[in-house]
Specification:
Layout (H helix, E strand, L loop, with lengths): L1 H6 L6 E3 L5 E3 L4 H4 L7 H31 L3 H34 L1
Antiparallel strand pairs: 1-2
């Protein structure tokens, strides 16, 4: 261990923990400090923002689906409605998954 300290240059052993904290170590900080390095509150806030955006997209898709229902043109309308319905169901699944992640983060 002492030999490794002599071989490594001093500037290569400095690691930044936060904006104002520097630590001298040879190993990666991910091996020393467990976790992803993202604060749970920040991660929750980001996830809530993404969830809000997804819900807005889902609302737009629902509106699009309603508009297509009122338009005329049988074959074209059916194909477009099916495509919008598929997108809407995928978006709903993504929202459910994000809500599960949010609940897990809040319970920690």
């Amino acid at each position: 261990m002492n030999q490794a300290n002599k071989d490594t240059a001093q500037y290569q052993t400095l690691k930044r923990i936060q904006k104002t904290f520097l630590v001298r170590c040879n190993e990666s900080l991910t091996k020393i400090i467990p976790g992803s390095g993202v604060r749970p509150a920040s991660q929750i806030r980001r996830l809530e923002k993404q969830l809000k955006e997804k819900r807005e997209e889902l609302g737009k898709l629902a509106e699009q689906e309603l508009l297509l229902g009122h338009m005329s043109g049988a074959r074209k309308k059916a194909a477009e409605q099916q495509e919008v319905a598929n997108k809407r169901s995928q978006m709903a699944e993504q929202i459910k998954e994000m809500e599960r992640q949010l609940n897990d983060l809040e319970l920690r």
